[in-house]
Design a protein that fits this description.
single chain; about 200 residues; alpha/beta; Cobalt-precorrin-4 Transmethylase, domain 1; Methyltransferase, Cobalt-precorrin-4 Transmethylase, Domain 2; 2 domains; 5-stranded mixed beta sheet; about 20% helix; elongated
Length: about 200
């Protein structure tokens, strides 16, 4: 089995991913992953839309599973098999905004329990956070959780990265931007930590 990252939008696949898909006889993927990769999928392949993610490890060994973005960033990289990386939303966003990936901590709120405590701990030590979201994330709840850390932050919402109608909007914890689509991620950058600090006398 191979888990192939198809990137975050059309035209975002690696050469290795394209070659792997073109040779595949048995392909499974979400509707979005298939749409991104469709021009490389052989017409005679057994193409299936994923209906039950819990049973993916039971598929035949010759199966290619398409994963949007990169499989190892909140993707299907947990499955058994070889991973072929794709261009992730984090990679693309950092390039677009000219931010170093080494300065950013990725946290996923996508399809899993939302660990606000982990988010808060990163912001308390002034780390930038790239948040992978679900469409139903409540932005007001998110900013309230950020405010609990006594941290002021710039909030950047990245809508439909890599698509023709891509849109990037910026705001703050006091005046946060709103997503314009269900497909978005968020970059949170602390600008001032207001927590009291104590200094030892010399």
């Amino acid at each position: 089995m191979k888990i192939v990252g198809v990137g975050i939008a059309p035209g975002m696949m690696t050469e290795k991913a394209i070659k792997t898909i073109k040779k595949a006889k048995n392909i499974h993927g979400s509707k979005r992953a298939i749409e991104i990769a469709k021009k490389h999928i052989p017409p005679d392949s057994n193409l299936q839309t994923i209906k039950n993610y819990k049973k993916l490890n039971q598929l035949p060994k010759n199966t290619i599973i398409l994963s949007t973005g990169d499989p190892m960033l909140s993707g299907l990289g947990y499955l058994n098999g070889e991973i072929i990386n794709g261009i992730s939303s984090l990679q693309y966003a950092c390039a677009k905004l000219k931010k170093s990936q080494t300065e950013i901590t990725p946290i996923s709120f996508h399809g899993r329990t939302r660990n606000y405590q982990k988010l808060q701990k990163q912001l308390e030590i002034n780390n930038k956070v790239f948040l992978i979201t679900d469409p139903d994330l409540n932005i007001q709840k998110l900013t309230n959780k950020i405010k609990q850390t006594n941290t002021k932050a710039q909030i950047t919402i990245l809508n439909k990265l890599g698509y023709p109608d891509e849109e990037i909007t910026k705001g703050t914890t006091q005046n946060p931007p709103k997503p314009t689509t269900n497909l978005y991620s968020i970059l949170i950058e602390p600008t001032q930590n207001q927590q009291k600090t104590t200094t030892k006398p010399k």
